[in-house]
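User: Assemble these into one structure.

Assistant: Restating your components, then the assembled model:
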Amino acid sequence: MFTKYQLSAVAVASAAVLATLPGTSAAQQSLTVTSWGGAYTVSQVESMHKPFAALKKINVVSQDYNGDLAEIAAQVKTGNVKWDLVDVEPAEAMKGCEEGLFEKIDASKLPPGADGTPASKDFGPGLVLPCAVANITYANVVAYDKAKLGANGPKTLEDFFNLTKFPGKRGMRSNPSVNMEWALLADGVPVADVYKVLATPAGVDRAFKKLDTIKSSIVWWKAGAQPPQLLASGEVVMTSVYHGRIVDANQKDKKDFALVWDGQIQVPDMWAIVKGGKNVELAQEFVRFSTSTQPLADQSKYIPYAPARTSSVAKIPASNPNKAWLPNAGHAGRSMLTDAKFWTDNGDDLNKRFSAWMAK
Amino acid sequence: MQLPPYTTPLQRAGHWALWLGCAAILVYLIAPVLVVVPLAFNNEPYFNFPVRQYSLRWFRELFGNPVWMAAIRNSLLTATLATLIATLLGTLAAVGLNHRNLPGKRLIMALLVSPMIVPVVVLAVGAYFFFSRLGIANNLLGIVMVHAVLGVPFVVITVSATLAGFDLGLLRAARGLGASPLTAFRRVMLPIVWPGVLSGALFAFATSFDEVVVVLFLGGPGQTTLPRQMWTGLREQLSPTILAAAFVLIIFAIIMLLVLEMLRRRSAALRGLAE
Amino acid sequence: MDKGEQTDLIRRLRQAEWRGRVRAYALIAPLFVFVALSFLLPLGSVLLNSVYDPVVPDGLPRTLKALADWNGPREQVPPEPVFAALAQDLKEAARAEKSGPIGGRLNIEETGLRSVFMRAARRVSAQEQGPWTPFFEAADPAWTKPAIWGTIRNLSSAEHSLFFLSAIDMKRQSDGQVVLQSDEQRIHVAIYLRTLGVALTVTLACLTLGFPMAYLLAHLKDKTANMLLILVLLPFWTSLLVRTTAWVVVLQKEGVVNSLLQSLGIIAEPLPLIFNRFGVVVAMTHILLPFTILPLYSVMRQIPPSYVRAARSLGASPGLAFWRVYLPQCVPGLSAGALLVFILSLGYYITPALVGGATDQLISHFVADNIGRSLNWGLASALSSILLAAVLILYWAYDRVAGVGNARLG
């Protein structure tokens, strides 16, 4: 057993196997872009990653995450920055900037729009922050399966909390953001006062009480791709969702999902560059490239999210079926924009209380 | 199990109840694993029965997608390296532990087997803290080291079990005939215990190949393994490609089991035990 | 043999023994070093991080020194020199972009402190010189109350037990007293009880199902037993994720079990079999069952059938013979299997995470959550340390009962 020949045969075989593995020694430079996965990442890959990779002759790698700043903080804290760019929401962008997690982005270097408008005017208000530049705005809405509920589906946000009229499970994101605002809206707080009320301890209690009324019927989701899957499998009768994922399911998987626009909470998505990464300069170039007019306009081909630049909106052709699904395309019902400053200041506390409440 | 002629009807009933119960338990054990098989060939991208159309769509996705292929390659590489380390060090240690009345043997044995008992999350978290300070947290090296540690108990247990049945007189005879300890080990002990060593190596390989918690904490985008990709698939992307991957892993498990069984028989034969 | 030769022989024997032992230790040494490096030191890091917390001592050194110099009672607000020291520390922290982590650390102790701290940190660069007390008062009235200073004093030492207190649902208030956490934050003790409960349930289920299976295997002919054993071990060797996926597929609302029951007309509406405690117990039992079957089987194989036959021939009914003669001999296998399953289910992470609902998560989930979501490494370490201690105690018990060296893997 184990003659010299056999041992050397094993050695040669394993060397051959290991040699064929195209290991981690990349010939090309690699940029790691982390985003929310699923159809959203696909839209970014098609409109931003691929053109940039071709332009710069590099490799752009996609990673998925679910919005937790903690993972980025852990990378920066331990000095192991794995992600070059991250797609974050404004509250996380602000908080990350304060905590020294993101590189500063020089807004003066952002290119003007294709129609000549300078970047400072082309981007909507609050869409360019010291450490982040917005790419799109999406809406958090309630979705249901029209094939199952037909014309008797929910019409308002209150229907989401109405277990008698619409029995069955509801899907909700395992994060206080959006859920707290919806609880107050459904409890009768007008749109303009939501954050004022939520800033008080009594307001927070009120929101949790409203959520308690449906708690036992909630199925928690974490990733953007989960709500359409929950609807398709019948696990829930309605769910909160990033609205573009539903449109994608309708188009790609021939589903007949419908949205409740009442109570929509619009949230911008922004690019941020992780501090201490290996490709900061390249990442800065990527931000400038991907938030220029054409890539943003192209992105709406793949997902119905509103571009951050006004010049891009003009570039979306009327033939684009997604135009009707943009958050600001004149839908009925209440709509509001998320308050990034509120969530930056109070996110930690509400997160802690929400986690404990969820686990009880 | 032949029932003796003096069994009462109640005993017969009890006997059949036992068989029925065990059949049910076997169904409980096997059925979930088998259920995955037809779904891996389902043409529709959902996890539900009935399967209306069969296709190899997800296998094409699995073997054609560079992300999945990279995951498979990483898994193979990590598992191979971890197994080599665990088997080499573990076999040596098992031979050392086989020494009669070694002081502290019980303690050492308990320590070497403890990675199997300690919750993986705790070890993964600790490795994350510790290796970050050393600068190798985002590296295949860190994962390989922890996987090797997780495989060591299996190697030590199997090799110790094999050595327990090994006749030390053979070694003494070899030494008496003039062989050095190393020669005696290589030419007398190893040829008899190699099935046990190989079994231990297989256990260690399977452990590393299947491990996901350590990779979750210690792995970056370049170190995604197959289970890590499946975890993402189960929690986030929900692509049925994971069912294709699951099918591949089931085939792998069957092959492993058959090889282990062959090794067990070989080992028993080599040590002169009756089958 | 005369006395001289005898002692010489004894000496050479002892030398040979000693050489043999050294050789044995030398063979074990490489693995020992490797395990120390890759296992013991990481675990040590966890234990260390559960008590070592230098964020505030490193971030607010001047403030802490000033507080120590003043050394006033906790009910009082500190004087101007302390505020001045704090302002210097804040300027330094803003320069190093470390104000966020400090604020975050304070916030872990008392909610709301982050915004108080950050508001002052954002403004501090605007003012060059004192007086600082009015500056902080203007930034936020909380600075002129003793509460925030009490919290800072609680964190003044780099080694403290605050994480362990939090892990048992207690906290140290700003006045220095140790009390129970507020109702919304009191989850950890409940989680320990839940983990113990699930582990106990799974252990009982495994014993109940494993015993008849092992009994059957032990009483079959070896060849048949080996073949059935392969069937038992097949799921054991299938990837954990594959098995968990399989359970999701089988138990989900439109899954195999529900479709079967509905088509047979037994139920009208699908049953909720997954993402709840039932699913977790079923999946975990499925995965841990081989760990009871194997030790029970190996023990039962050794039991000579003659004992039961002797009992029967002495007049015992089959039931009595089983209860008084057979079962006691199975106890080593039962206890080994039970302990092993119990220990393993305590630390389970993957299966409850994928198959359970939000209210079914076990303690390992909270460890991972505190690392990944809340970035509270200290609390995660404290929870891990408690879990580790529990596991080690049970492991010691397992070693006494079954002997770790006697474990067999089929």
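The interface with chain C takes residues 68, 70-71, 73-74, 77, 95, 98-100, 174, 218-220, 233-235, 345-346, 348-349, 351-353, 355-360 of chain A (CB under 8 Å).
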